[in-house]
Write a structure and sequence with these properties.
Elements lengths: L6 E5 L44 E6 L14 E5 L1 E10 L2 E2 L2 E3 L5 E3 L8 E10 L4 E9 L5 E3 L1 E6 L2 E2 L4 E3 L5 E5 L6 H7 E6 L4 E5 L4 E6 L8 E6 L10 E3 L3 E7 L3 E6 L4 E6 L2 E9 L5 E3 L5 E3 L5 E4 L2 E8 L18 E8 L6 E4 L16 E3 L1 H10 L5 E5 L24
Parallel strand pairs: 1-2, 10-19, 13-20, 21-31, 29-30
Antiparallel strand pairs: 2-3, 3-7, 4-5, 4-8, 6-7, 8-9, 11-12, 11-14, 14-17, 15-18, 16-17, 18-20, 21-22, 22-23, 23-30, 24-25, 26-31, 27-28, 28-29
Length: about 425
Amino acid sequence: MLQRRTVILGAVGTAAGLAAAGCSHAGKADGAKGASPAGEWHSPGDASESPAAAAVTLTVSPATGKTDVSPIEPVLVSVQGGTLESVTVASGSKKVGGEVQSDGSWKSTGTMAYSKTYTVTASIKDSTGETVQKTSTFTTLKPKAVANITFQANGLAALKSGGTYGVGQPVIVAFSKSVSDKAAAEKAIEVETTPSVSGKFHWVSNSIVHWRPEKYWAKGTEIKVSVNGLGAHFGKGVYGSANRSASFTIGRALIAISDNNTHRCKVYIDGKMVRDMACSNGRGGYTTIANGQKIHFWTQSGPHVVLSKELVHSMSSASYGLTDKNNPFYYDPEDVKFCTRISYSGEFLHAAPWNHQLGRANISHGCVNLGEADAEWVYHNFLIGDVVQVKNSPKALPLTDGLGDWTVSYDKYGN
């Protein structure tokens, strides 16, 4: 039996301007005996009129023709007067996942990409069982720039997701583009900890932000950091490239204390002293290097965080710009063993077999000199993120020389 079908297709916020697919069949010629009105058809021997299909209204969001659609905006398809049989949302060969909801509508579950045109294709079965197919298109927004998102252990090393770090390790998120709307970036970042602790953000530059709790992490704390970057606007047309996440765990609570006055470096694990080492810290004093910069030779006071470890590191005064061999602070390159870095400016705990003043005087160029056995123990037992507190030095560690996040009180952190 052929029947009249009417399908009305439209989009949210617009008139139903997407033309419906319908059909009608001409009746007998005008004037013929038993002629039916135009557009109607009766089965032979059936004097009754065949029932018309119910009107079908299709609603698609985002509306057809819309541009600047966020890639995280859900695609919604619903129908009245019929049943959705299938929905596909695709840009070329890339399809967006979705599922039918309890009310019979369809909602996307996947995300889209920037600067793409997507076609929504819906197949609908009307009340008579006939199938109608309709398409709608929209375009996602085109950013001026896209910021990639990475996680750092520090400025020298990426964070190893699933890794174990020391109690001083802050959460560090790095953006590949400058962020002008820092509030939007912070809103996109979620830090979940077990046990739960609150924390604060601190921007060390326009592209790198740190997050730390009020106190050092408790041992065994599990941290997950997520950045909902896709679709997030970080200002001046810069959008996040994608959603990113990473996790890490805090190991045993190791804190070392190097005292400039006593020339001892004591290591505590979970509050118990496990090693007491003779040391020799920076001799102090100033000199001027070739570019006119004034540099000092103190081991800086304050809480340092372990940044990296190297079995052998080549050290020389030229590494920080001092090349004048007549300068009393000059020294030739030397391969140094068991090096544990605690600042970007070149402070290490390392073996110093040439230093015969360990435990008696500070004569280094700024590092914490140790005996070879002690330096080897530190190298094998310290983790990135462990804390080395230097006491009684006249020069304070700057916030940005390594991970100086703990050098400021919590109330001033982030200000």
